[in-house]
Specification:
Blueprint (H helix, E strand, L loop, with lengths): L10 H8 L5 E3 L5 H6 L17 E3 L4 H13 L3 E5 L18 E5 L6 E4 L4 E5 L4 H11 L3 E2 L10 H6 L7 H4 L6 E7 L5 E2 L1 H4 L1 H6 L10 E8 L1 E2 L4 E9 L4 H11 L7 E8 L2 E8 L3 H11 L11 E3 L1 H10 L18 E9 L5 H11 L7 E6 L22 E9 L7 H14 L33 H12 L2 H12 L17
Parallel strand pairs: 2-4, 3-4
Antiparallel strand pairs: 1-2, 5-6, 6-10, 7-11, 8-9, 8-10, 12-14, 12-15, 13-14, 13-17, 16-18, 17-18
Length: about 500
């Protein structure tokens, strides 16, 4: 009798069976630190206090992802998926609790295939938005895709939560324009739209990242843009009437023609009016002088360019070239805290005076970035996708505060953003006070696992979940129960399963 050679069956051996060693980074490997840090945007989480993964897997092919899921489940090691790493709370690469987990980092899976004739593209989750925009413009300069402003954002997390930028009034959110997707589910099975089924395909288009499996690639609809678009950036100080202009902008901007998006950044003692118009300066001028003459926009403010150039111009400045949107390290890395709100009724002028007079001039004060809705983003029914912020929304506010330093949490910016958010409560949406899931904010609540249970609690989840998804939260939770009843794909704000 020759005893069988014991086969090592731990988590690492399981991964090693199907994933080449060069794609596996253990804490002891020299590559671990640089791979982990490669897409961390919020320096708060690049700290010795952060709970880091045991391993990072950087798949180059679908079977690697399938093997990672199967091994993780078999050995009880939780998984986090990371595409561009821009999550404001770092949920794609860190855990709040000291549980063992590993990362599937999609950064090596970032191909973009554009079909100009069919006006569609397949884009892998690890691509950054800049890579998608660039590839579209190379094949079809007359086509575009409506997604975020910052070119380093990852497609995977961004589309999962909705995703909007300067084309939101013309074409809605990115998720509205997804027509198919491939995904690895909690059993390691690969699906497309048809095999995943209606609820599952609905859930991944706006229901937030992580909860429903690993989206490998997305097929998107490309949309027509004219050869020339016009960008303007007009700063106005308080002395130049910023308060009156912002007060008027609130109702004006959501009612403008869909080809014109004017957003506002309120910071310090000024408001920056930044616009993208799908057309020439000559077509924009009469529109501005009839609808918003107080802004004083004239020909000297016009910057005419192609749509893809506007991406570089708006995010990276007027000297940036189109190729700069391919740079994967171009966005600032800082310590940051972010929150969001939705406004349905214009905020009175007196409140704006207070916002500028007291709040934006405090030590540690950040920025309010306000994106007007209306037109296409507001047209779908609230339940058409999990992204529910539609009819009646005047604009979205993103409160941004960031700071540089030596890693010591800075009190002034963090208390500013919390106090500012409390001050804004009477002026923004209520029951629930809505928030945008891509502007992740753990202050809204985190999942809990009930004593003796092993899945996230539905009731606790509902408290934060309704703020991101309104009534869509229940359908998301029922879908979660169908596709991942054991709650394997879990993080602090993943959708809990609603088990009947
Ligand atoms: P990351 O990789 O961190 O993932 C975010 C979440 O999605 C995590 O929970 C993660 O597990 C999950 N996930 C990632 N890949 C997945 C996959 N393949 N399958 C399933 N789940 C996956 N938003 C916006 O709408 N408009 C904008 O203009 C901007 N601008 C902006 C600028 C900057 C500098 C930052 C840091 C962020 C923004 N955002 C934004 C917010 C951004 O849309 C949001 O953080 C996205 O979730 C980022 O997607 P990433 O893939 O980069 O993040």
């Amino acid at each position: 009798y020759i005893p069988a050679k014991p086969t090592k069956d731990d988590f690492l051996s399981c991964l090693n069976r199907d994933i080449p060693a060069r794609l596996l980074h253990a804490r002891s490997s020299p590559s671990y630190g640089s791979v982990l840090a490669s897409t961390i945007r919020n320096l708060k989480f690049l700290s010795s206090k952060t709970v880091n993964p045991l391993y990072i897997v950087t798949p180059t092919d679908v079977p690697h992802i399938q093997a990672a899921v199967v091994c993780g489940r078999r050995h009880g090691v939780r998984i986090r998926v990371r595409s561009g790493g821009h999550d404001y709370e770092g949920l794609s690469y860190r855990s709040e609790s000291p549980e063992p987990f590993f990362i599937v980092d999609m950064s090596k899976m970032r191909s973009v295939r554009v079909d100009g004739k069919a006006r569609t593209a397949w884009v892998e989750s690890g691509a950054q938005l800049g890579e998608l925009y660039y590839a579209i413009s190379k094949v079809s300069p007359g086509l575009a895709f409506p997604a975020g402003v910052c070119p380093t954002i990852g497609v995977g997390g961004h589309f999962s939560g909705g995703g909007f930028g300067m084309l939101l009034r013309k074409f809605g959110v990115a998720a509205d324009n997804v027509i198919d997707a491939t995904l690895v589910d909690a059993n390691g099975k690969l699906h497309d739209k048809k095999s995943m089924g209606e609820d599952h395909f609905w859930a991944i288009r706006g229901g937030g990242g992580e909860s429903f499996g690993i989206v490998v690639a997305w097929q998107v609809k490309l949309l027509p843009v004219p050869p020339t678009v016009t960008v303007f950036q007009i700063p106005k100080t308080l002395n130049e009437g910023a308060v009156d202009l912002v007060t008027k902008w609130q109702e004006l901007a959501p009612a403008l023609p869909e080809d014109l998006m004017i957003r506002v950044m309120a910071q310090g003692q000024r408001a920056m009016f930044e616009a993208l118009f799908l057309g020439t300066c000559s077509a924009l001028l009469p529109l501005m002088s009839s609808r918003f003459p107080e802004l004083g926009m004239n020909r000297s403010h016009c910057n005419e360019m192609s749509w893809v150039q506007s991406i570089a111009f708006i995010h990276l400045g007027k000297n940036a070239g189109v190729k700069d949107i391919l740079n994967r390290t171009s966005s600032i890395r800082a310590f940051g805290k972010y929150k969001s709100d939705y406004v349905f009724r214009p905020i009175p002028k007196g409140v704006w005076q207070n916002i500028y007079g007291s709040w934006l001039s405090k030590p540690g004060a950040g920025v309010m970035i306000m994106d007007p809705y209306g037109a296409t983003i507001s047209a779908p029914d609230e339940s058409a996708t999990p992204f529910p912020h539609r009819k009646g929304v005047l604009y979205n506010i993103q409160y941004v505060t960031f700071w540089f330093g030596d890693g010591i949490p800075s009190l002034a910016p963090t208390s500013w953003i919390r106090d500012m958010y409390a001050f804004m409560e009477p002026h923004v949406s209520k029951n629930p006070r809505q928030a945008y899931v891509n502007y992740r904010d753990l202050d809204l609540g985190v999942n809990q696992v009930a004593a003796g249970g092993n899945v996230s609690c539905y009731k606790t989840g509902k408290a934060w979940g309704e703020r991101y998804f309104k009534d869509n939260f229940d359908r998301l939770a029922r879908t979660k129960a169908k596709v991942d009843p054991t709650d394997y794909f879990r993080n602090e704000q993943s959708i809990p399963p609603l088990i009947a």
